[in-house]
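Assess this today:

___
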Amino acid sequence: MTPSAKCAMSSTIKCRRTSQTGDSTATKGTSVEYQIDVIREQHLLKYLELVDGELERTGCLLRRRHKAVRSAIDSIVAAAKRVTDPERKRDIMDYAR
């Protein structure tokens, strides 16, 4: 495929360092959104540095809001302890609100 190729749906694919695509899928009545990053091998280290920086910032935010995070975790665990069905327990842990 050339760096700028036409697809069947008239989309244009251009040669870039990274490409992002997103979609959503329905699971048990809820919609889950996800994103896929496609990276050229020569840019992998720079991309991993970017991801490390984002994880570091996320960790700082979680530590800064420790009480709220701990409270949310405690309420999720308490709700899951009351349930005996493993599938329902998994739903509580995955989709707690």
Observations:
- Residues 44-64 form the longest helix (21 residues).
- The two ends are 45 Å apart (CA to CA).
